[in-house]
Amino acid sequence: MSFAAQFAGVYLNFNPDDAASRSRKLAAFLAEGMDPQMGWDGFGRYAAVAIQPYDIEVADAHNAVVSVAFQSGPRRLMLSVPLYSSGGEAGRRFVVAGRPAILPAPAPAQLPQVAEPETDDATAAELKPQLEGFFKDYADGDTAGLQRYVAAGKSLPSFAGAFTFSQLKEVVVPVGGATREIQAVVVWAVPNGDVPATPSATDPAAVGGTLEQVYRLTVEKQGDKWFVADIRGGGRVLG
User: Fold this and answer.
1) What dihedral do alpha carbons 128, 133, 137, 138 form, nearest 10°?
2) pLDDT by residue (tens digit) across 227-239?
């Protein structure tokens, strides 16, 4: 599938100034005697980015059609690439076996509605100042400070200054016992060089911005305080 994605990176990007170079690059993927420009007439321009293998339809032991997803301008599309392979697992070789085809990308999946969980607002209010301190040190890379918020016996890495904590926007805490999996909506300040993020900037390109993200955390109550035992990427915000 990576062979098809590499081919797509050459095939889907063309302009008249680069025609000869494109032809030379395509030669590394094409069967002998195939059109060196693969159907392009040498006019116009096209550009594709975010090229990734998407799916494979296997016809037999040697033939398959690989679908590659890509972005061109505002549109997400697919490229279908017929491939032939030979050799064993240790020395497999590939070649483009025919003309590719651009197709519309599948529509986004329909996200079903889910019931909101029963939440514990009192515990959320208790957790919020703890989590604000945790995320600040998590962003700054203050190892000693971070350990004040981490459960005993646990150790968590940090961003080490790559981001700055801006805001804990929301905490969703389900009802439960002394160990719970919660969700936190965090706003990070994203730096732009040495210039700090500011929401009142008149030139958005000249300053850092903010980025809202969702995390799942396992928290444990030890004594009269809550501590973070684990942090992972979040799922759907349920609150």
Assistant:
1) -10
2) 999 999 987 655 4
